[in-house]
Every structure is written in C-alpha cells, then in structure tokens.
Design brief:
With 507 residues, the protein is of the alpha/beta class. It contains 19 helices and 14 strands. The strands form three sheets. Strands 1, 4, 5, 6, 12 and 13 form a six-stranded parallel beta sheet that branches. Helix 10 packs antiparallel against helix 14, helix 14 runs antiparallel to helix 16 and helix 16 crosses helix 18. The radius of gyration is 23 Å and the shape is globular.
Length: 507
C-alpha cells in the first residue's frame, strides 16, 4: 500500500496599512513589536524558515526550512509587506518553493490565494474574478510560475467561484470534509451522501461544473487538522507523526494521501515551538520512509481522481453556519464576553455593499470616457500595485486608454483604479471574524471604505459619506464607550485621513 502525507499551512495576516500612507502604523496590542505583522513574523514566519530539530539531549542537530517540505500559501498582501519589511524570510519562502519543485517531481508547494481574503461567495461575480486574477498575477510575479492550486479564503465556496477558478486554469483547491455533499465513482450512479464530514479525505475528487468544466478538490482530514490547531498535538513532534500515520488503513486499496490543513500561524504563533514539532515530523517521516512526503500537485499528477463529488455551497471551514460569520450574528466568535453579540456584522456589510454598488456605476461611467474597458483595466491594475514605477503606469495606459491622455486624465484614471482597489480591500474577511465593530480588524475595513469615499467625492463631486454613515450608524459596538459605527468612524477613521492633494499643494 502506497502511503503519502501532505501538511498544508495557510499563512495569512490581513492587510494593515493605513490606506493614505501605505504603511502600517503602530499597533499597541502587538507590543513589544511595532505591529502584528512584525510579531507574527518573529513568532512564526521566520522560525519556520529555519526550524530547529533537537536530539534527545536538547541539542540542535539540524536546521530546516519547513516551507520546502510542506504545502503552503501566503496571502498576497502579507507577502507584499514581507518583501519590504522581512526580506530574508520572504526570500526563504520563495526559495522553498523552488526547492519543493526539485523534491516533488517539478510541482512547487506554494499555492496562490484570492487576493485580499475576501469571502468570495458573498462577493459579486466581478469582484470574484478580479480577486482570483489578482491572486494569480501576484503569485506569478513572486514565484515565477503559474499556480496549480488556489486557496479560497476560509475555504468559503460556491459553484460560481469554482467556475472562475476552472475558467482561468486553476487545477485544484482544498476544502473541509463537511463541505462535501455526496460522492460516487466516476461516471457511475447512485450518489452516496457524505454530508456531516464523512467524505474520505485520502483521495482527490473531481467536481463537474455547470459550464462543463471541472476542477479537482481535496478535503483535508478534519480530525487531525483540529487536533493540530486546537488540541495540543504539536506538543511533541512524535505525537504528530503517530497521529498522521494512524490515519492510514489497510482496508483502502488505493494509494492513500493523508493530508491536513490549518492556519500556518499554528506553527509557532498560536503554539510556541510548533515549528519545531513540524520540522521533526517532516524530517522523521521522510528519513524513515514511513510514508512519502508530497504536495497536492505531485499527488494529483500520479493519482488522478477516481470519484466525483458535489459540494455544499456557501460553506466554509471556520463557520458551521456556512458563511454567516461574515454577514450575521450566527453565534461564532473568538472571545466569550457575557452579553456581547455580533449583531453589528449585518449592518456593516450592508453599508459596504451600498458603497460598492453606489460607486461602481459612477466608476464605470467616468472610466468609459478614458478607458476601452473599465473592468478589464481594473483587472490589469494589479500590475501597477506590484510595481509603482512610471514605466508600469505607462504600460497600463498604453494597453487600456482610449487615446493618448493628458496628465490630468492620467491622474484621474489612477484615482479611479485606486478607488476600485480600496473598494475590494474593504471586504477583507477579518473585518467580520472577531468580536466587535471597534476591533482593529473591523476598523481596518472602515479605513479602506474611508479612502474609497474620499477618492469618490474628489472624482465625482458629490457627497457619498453622509448616506454611508447613516447606514453604518445601524451597527453598534458591544462597548458603550465606542457607541455605533458613525462614532467609531469619526473617532478612529477620520483622524487617519490624509489630504494628499493639500499636502502636495503645500509642498
């Protein structure tokens, strides 16, 4: 019986930059570090690039780059920060992908991710497509190759999102077991109900899409993944090895893949020295031939799906209520403060949806007088996000402008495109994940909304903020000191604003 093991880490932090300054300001809750990106890098991202393996006497006998032996994805906005502020760790991640291609039959272990961790089933189709495309373009620029797979934020899934992945050429993604609805051998009937997390995770599956396309799906081993994340399985590397090996069964005749997926921050940030347990497990498994380490691309090449699957739409890995954690008071939360609710989630999303849907037609109308296709130009704007040089801007305008543009028109185009970037950043999922509207994650999405509003009022010459605030007022913090969304916006968003045009005039 062939036995394969794959450990996937989803490494991600929300974008934290002040959208006027494009820099991360000090976050007091991250002390003694400047901000949470710095703290998690020190506790997790850097240690995993040089993880220690100890002998029985506690002496370091080996230092390894964990990323080279596992499967992983990094959020594009996190990598953008890391490239500037943690370049050594950043280069170790890129190098690990190159090394993994040598180890895994030419298949790199890095996967792409939808750009800024937007919950895609709650997005409109246009934003879904741009998020996927920007994730791919960012990945190509950093890793120098096409991504075989893509991580869906929170593994939140619907058929439209999977259609887009298949349309652009993504081969596979990873879901949780409870997201599988029913399975059957390829092309045969009847279907077998596997709801409730009963899908066999040791094989890949093919999902046939309404368009006629298909995509391959892997369903992580939920029990072992939860044990790693929440049940202390990383206290000893030997425990992790034994638990992974226990998932193989002689009753399965196919080449089995035991694979888990957790937040990458589990290894070192959530669990101190977790990167050492991971390093030990990867080294021990590979050096003793207990199983073959692999990644998803390599396994899929040698073992294509023999079964079909259907999924439950609008589900995710971290909310048993589907995707309600990002739009309603579903009961999911991080803390356990008596009397606190998440009733603020729905009005926050309603306010942002109104803003998005109000700005989109105005963007389209104004941009149509300057650009051949305003939405195709937005899709390509990621090239400027990745390279703010004059040459990159000129290439974008040469491709998309209706005609040679005057300097003022060029500035207008860039403002329009930046408006759209902010309108996507304001849907970063962490804004809803935690417990209160006044938390740094929810305030961050309001900062992006504030920047989008400032650009819109400058471009279109009409007041947008008053209606947005009247909607935001319906969202209330659990802390009476913070009050409602209007007050939070006034206290925590408006002071962060910078009138860049005024500064330029003064300079």
């Amino acid at each position: 019986m062939e036995r394969f093991i794959c450990i996937h880490g989803h490494f991600y932090q929300p974008p934290r930059e002040n959208p006027w300054l494009e820099a991360v300001e000090r976050q007091e809750s991250a002390r003694p570090f400047h901000d949470w990106n710095e703290r998690v890098t020190a506790e997790c991202y850097a240690p995993n690039s040089a993880a220690r393996i100890l002998d029985g006497a506690g002496r370091t006998v080996r230092i390894v780059n964990n990323y080279a032996g596992m499967s992983f994805n990094f959020g594009p906005t996190l990598l953008a920060w890391m490239e500037r502020r943690a370049p050594e760790t950043y280069q170790s991640i890129l190098e690990a992908d190159r090394d993994s291609q040598k180890a895994f039959s030419g298949h790199g272990s890095a996967l792409a991710q939808a750009y800024n961790h937007m919950i895609l089933p709650l997005a409109n189709r246009r934003d879904k497509y741009t998020q996927v495309l920007w994730g791919i373009r960012d990945f190509e620029r950093r890793f120098g190759r096409w991504p075989e797979g893509m991580w869906l934020p929170e593994t939140a899934v619907d058929l439209e999102t999977l259609e887009i992945l298949a349309q652009v050429g993504i081969r596979f993604t990873i879901l949780a077991q409870h997201q599988a609805r029913r399975v059957r051998p390829m092309g045969r009937t009847p279907w077998r109900d596997v709801s409730g997390g009963r899908a066999d995770p040791t094989m890949p599956y093919q999902l046939r899409l309404p368009s006629g396309r298909s995509i391959q799906l892997f369903f992580r081993d939920g029990a072992i993944s939860r044990a790693v994340a929440f049940e202390g399985l990383l206290s000893q590397g030997e425990d992790l090895v034994n638990r992974l090996l226990s998932a193989f069964s002689e009753e399965r005749p196919w080449p089995q893949l035991v694979h888990i997926a957790t937040d990458g921050e589990t290894y070192g940030h959530h669990h101190k020295y977790g990167e050492m347990a991971l390093a030990y497990a990867l080294h021990h498994i590979s050096s003793t031939n207990l199983a073959r380490l692999t990644n998803y691309g390599e396994y899929l090449e040698g073992h294509p799906p023999t079964h079909e699957v259907e999924v439950w739409e609008n589900t995710s890995w971290s909310c048993p209520h589907g995707v309600e954690r990002w739009r309603s008071d579903c009961g999911c939360k991080v803390g356990n403060r008596p009397g606190w609710t998440q009733a603020w989630r729905a009005p926050l999303r309603a306010a942002l949806d109104w803003l998005r849907d109000t700005l989109a037609p105005r963007y389209e109308q104004m941009a149509a007088s300057l650009l051949k296709d305003p939405w195709a130009a937005r899709d390509d704007y990621v090239s400027v996000v990745l390279d703010r040089s004059t040459d990159a801007v000129q290439r974008l305008l040469h491709k998309h402008a209706l005609r040679p543009l005057a300097e003022e028109e060029r500035v207008t185009v860039l403002k329009l495109l930046e408006l759209q970037r902010q309108a996507m950043l304001m849907y970063t999922s962490c804004g809803w994940f935690f417990d209160d509207l006044a938390g740094i994650e929810a305030v961050q999405v309001l900062l992006y909304a504030g920047r989008a509003i400032q650009l819109a009022e400058d471009l279109f010459g009409e007041a947008v903020e008053p209606m947005f605030l009247s909607l935001l007022e319906q969202a209330r913090s659990n802390d009476p000191e913070h009050g409602d969304g209007r007050r939070i916006y006034a206290r925590l968003v408006k002071p962060a604003e910078v009138d860049l045009a005024a500064d330029k005039r003064r300079g």
